[in-house]
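ok new one. same drill as before - structure tokens go in, u give me an amino acid for every spot. 362 of them this time. try not to just spam alanines like last time pls lmao
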């Protein structure tokens, strides 16, 4: 659904620098629109979370950015790594916000979406070519969810050479002078594992299903899981493996882990898709109810699994807010305005007690 004028202000809450404890590279909120981003983590923190876990949640601060003023027709190129369940919602948010801006301004705002998913995988060269095509077409701005956050510099250079503003969304390459719209993945991994530790009574063997290891989200969510486990003497991480954000890979990895016969008590997955794959493997092995599983994104399938009692927790990542925020930032820059380097769309912990608040959001 489209963001209204106040929603766009909320989506564009600017922050200073996030306090990251690891390298920064990334695949959603009922907080008041005027709430500063620094307050969002506290609002999402489980009331019974250990003090040590709460202390490890990163801090951020910022002020609201005015919604963009559109004075001419705009074409925004959007380069996606792929359009999966979650990123499909980011795409929806971009298109809805473009429509809202068109209605509000009387000028047509168009988002042209491309996907770099080729031969069953996200392809860096394809995405660079797509950005170069946007440059040659003379688009007004470019929004990119990078395939590989460590390989994003050439896209930045191509846009900068043509004096076309570029905004990164969802996956943060941390390139100077390039704004980023997204959420703090260290916080997501921290609150996810804090809730899992609470549900497990602070004991047990933990396995981590990691996203693509060249993505900032995978690095930081995994760190958040590890940080919380390290603060619980009765817990330890016994296995970590990349499932590349995919449900089928989460399934096959979990099947292999279960076949070893090693004790597994908790699965801390970097996203819901891998968590759902793990849940299928657990069910096939007759271990439903014996292993606690968590994820990130709060997709519709994940919330259905929570309602069924097979997924213990997830963390809402505001897909439509990220998409809409990316379009707003791009439109602002295309109009000659400025935006802060980091536009934070806060994560929120989803539990069985507040689950109903998130149905239908992602």
């Amino acid at each position: 659904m489209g963001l209204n004028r106040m929603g766009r202000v909320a989506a564009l809450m600017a922050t200073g620098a996030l306090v990251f404890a690891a390298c920064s590279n990334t695949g959603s909120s009922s907080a008041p629109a005027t709430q500063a981003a620094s307050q969002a983590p506290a609002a999402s923190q489980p009331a019974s979370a250990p003090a040590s876990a709460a202390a490890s949640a990163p801090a951020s601060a910022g002020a609201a950015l005015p919604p963009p003023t559109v004075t001419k027709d705009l074409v925004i190129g959007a380069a996606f790594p792929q359009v999966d369940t979650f990123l499909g919602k980011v795409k929806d948010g971009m298109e809805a916000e473009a429509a809202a801006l068109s209605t509000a301004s009387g000028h047509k705002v168009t988002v042209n979406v491309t996907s770099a998913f080729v031969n069953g995988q996200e392809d860096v060269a394809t995405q660079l070519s797509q950005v170069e095509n946007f440059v040659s077409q003379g688009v007004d701005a470019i929004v990119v969810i990078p395939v590989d956050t460590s390989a994003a510099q050439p896209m930045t250079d191509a846009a900068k050479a043509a004096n076309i503003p570029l905004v990164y969304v969802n996956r943060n390459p941390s390139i100077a002078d390039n704004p980023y719209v997204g959420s703090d993945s260290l916080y997501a991994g921290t609150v996810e594992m804090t809730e899992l530790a609470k549900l497990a009574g602070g004991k047990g063997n933990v396995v981590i299903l990691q996203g693509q290891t060249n993505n900032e989200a995978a690095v930081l969510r995994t760190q958040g899981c590890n940080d919380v486990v390290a603060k619980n003497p009765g817990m330890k991480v016994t296995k970590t493996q990349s499932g590349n954000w995919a449900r089928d890979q989460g399934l096959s990895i979990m099947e292999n882990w279960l076949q070893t016969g090693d004790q597994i008590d908790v699965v801390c997955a970097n996203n819901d898709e891998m968590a759902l794959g793990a849940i299928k493997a657990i069910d096939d092995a007759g271990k439903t109810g014996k292993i606690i599983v968590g994820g990130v994104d709060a997709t519709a399938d994940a919330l259905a699994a929570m309602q069924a009692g097979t997924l213990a927790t997830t963390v809402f990542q505001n897909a439509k807010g990220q998409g809409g925020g990316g379009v707003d930032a791009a439109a602002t820059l295309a109009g000659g305005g400025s935006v802060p380097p980091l536009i934070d769309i806060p994560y929120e912990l989803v539990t069985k007690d507040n689950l109903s608040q998130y149905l239908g959001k992602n």
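The CA atoms of residues 34 and 287 lie 44 Å apart. and btw The chain has a mean pLDDT of 85.
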